[in-house]
Amino acid sequence: MKTRAVVLRGTSTARPYSDTRPVEVEELELGAPREGEVLVRIAAASLCHSDLSVVNGDRVRPLPMALGHEAVGVVQDTGPGVGRVSPGDHVALVFVPSCGFCGDCAAGRPALCAQAAAANGSGALLHGPSLLTDAAGNPVHHQLGVSAFSEHAVLAQESVVPIPKDVPFTVASMFGCAVLTGAGAVINTAALRPGQSTVVYGLGGVGLSAVLGARAAGAYPIIAVDPVQEKRELALRLGATHAYAPDEAARQIRELTSGGAESAVEAVGSPKVMAQCLSAVARGGKVVSVGLPAPDRVLEVPALAFAGEGKSLLGSYMGDAVPRRDIPRFLDLWRAGLMPVEQMHTGTLPLSDINVAMEELASGRAIRQVIDTSGMLSA
Asked: Which parts of the sequence belong to the Enoyl reductase (ER) domain (predicted)?
């Protein structure tokens, strides 16, 4: 079948994206689902900073690539052996299609699945090579097994999680990446307990989701740090108890927490900010890093912070989530009013405006823009 999709053919750091158009909407051929795969009509796809990291080359991926990894859709068809979903089901898409059998999956850490990492790194699907080809018949790689900036996508059944049909598409689209990663970082990785203090550096979609997770976990105080005033104000509406600009954060955190927070989340992807987080936590405190720096960036911190002060620096990929467990429970928290993710929605754009959306995100003006990939939002 034919599908219109956003394709990246060469990385670009030129700005503004809306003028330089580093990606284009192309008509691709999409193969039918094979064994263990499902065909999904994409209803809404959110734009994440990780997508920009592929465009500018910070995240090295095989090209050409059909982009998009945070989305929701409706199952249209299934291949042989699919038992998790049926046509008509609403599904959230997950960017780590864990195999379920490797050592990490068996240990309850599907985000670290080795088979999924290999498939994602090569631009393939979990059950086989790419199913996308361009007008010349050349293969086009999948982004993280999803490629959601498209009218339709074929995914491994391990990449989809059924969700209730009454959840709005614009809300559900944020749960497969931003919420899993941000809320998961504080609930799963940091194991935040009621009354513990936490600070979140970087208030994009992931950082604000960490604020929401901290609120749901009963943390206090919840301190939000970002240079953009509008993002600090939004963090306060979402549950942060205090919000500071970076230049005043260190002093304010020390005063507010009597020396340092019990945990910190770094959602910027900056070694400098990781070091600031390590300074912001008290003796015995935890720093959870969820930002994705460029591969050549190096972190330099005082070595004594670990054995001497008992601090921990923890990596958290996809929020250490188990998607089939965590997406439903996070949606329950949304339904209860404890995770109002709809307040992060800063605009809906058609597929043709993808470069405009990228520029809005890169400029810091947008939090989570939703791409109406197949017209389902405007129908």
From this structure: 18-371
